[in-house]
Amino acid sequence: TRRPGDTPLGPDAPFEARRQAVNRFESELLDDVIPVIEKRYPVIADSNHRALAGLSMGGSQTMRIGPTHPDTFAYLGVFSSGMRRRTEPSPEDNTSSYPDAKKLNSALKLFWVSCGDRDRVLEAAKTYEQFLTEKNINHVWHLDSGGHEWSVWKNDLYLMAQRLFR
Questions:
Q1: How are beta strands 140-144 and 110-116 bridged, if at all?
Q2: Quick one: how many helices (H) and strands (E) in the chain?
Q3: Is the pLDDT of residue 88 over 50?
Q4: How far is CA 55 from CA 16, 63, 81, 88, in A?
Q5: Are 129 and 113 in contact (CB under 8 A)?
Q6: Most CB contacts within 10 A, which of 47, 48, 63, 151?
Q7: Has residue 87 got a pLDDT over 70?
Q8: Which phi-psi region, left, alpha or beta, contains residue 162 (left: φ > 0; alpha: ψ -120 to 50)?
C-alpha cells in the first residue's frame, strides 16, 4: 500500500521499506477493509464465510496473510504466484510463521493454488506447492493451460468459486 510521497517499491528496494509496506497492507486489510465491509454490508462475519484470493502480487499477499490468519479466512486462492528459492530472507515470504499443518488443515476449507503451464512464475508456484506438500498442508494444485494472463486467472477463479462456501 502506497501513501502520498512514497516511492514505488520493487524487488530491489531496501528490505526494511518492503517489510513496512507488506505489513501496512496486511494491517489495512484486517483492521480497515474487513471491518468496513462488515459494517456496511449484510455479510456473515466469520471465517467460514470469508475468502481471500489473489493473482500474481495478490497471490503473494494471499500466501502471506491467509495461512497466518486461519481464524479470519477459511478459503484461500493463490493464482500465478509462489515462492522463489532464496538464500536471504524476504519480507514477502513469511511461511515460517504459518501455523502447524494440523491447525491450518482443521481451519481451512479450501486452499487453492494454481498456475498456467507457460506462466513466467511457474517454477515459483511449483516451489510453493512442494512446500505445502512437504509441510502436509492440505491444498488443491491446479496446473492450467496458458501464461501469466487473464484467460488463465478467469478459468482458475471459475473452478475455485465452485468450491467456495459449501
A1: parallel
A2: 6, 4
A3: no
A4: 24, 10, 7, 24
A5: yes
A6: 63
A7: no
A8: alpha
Entry pTM: 0.84
Half-sphere exposure of residue 161: CA atoms within 13 angstroms, side-chain side: 7
Alpha carbons 164 and 101: distance in angstroms, whole number: 21
Sign, CA torsion 51/74/137/25:
positive
Could you tell me the CA-to-CA distances from 47 to 27, 32, 96, 110, 139 in Å, in that order?
17, 16, 22, 12, 17
pLDDT band of residue 91 (cuts 50, 70, 90) is very low
Say which residue the cell 512446500 belongs to.
131
Residue 141 phi, psi dihedral angles, 5° rounding: -105, 125
Q: Report the 10 Å Cβ neighbour count for 137.
A: 20
> For residue 66, how far is the Cα from the chain centroid?
6
Closest among 64, 92, 91, 94 to 76, alpha carbons compared = 64
Residue count (the chain): 166
Cα–Cα nearest to 19, from 79, 88, 103:
88
Measured between its terminal Cα atoms, the distance across the chain in Å is 32
Q: Which three cell numbers stand for residue 158?
A: 471459475
Cell numbers standing for residue 49: 464465510
Residue 136, SS3 per DSSP: coil
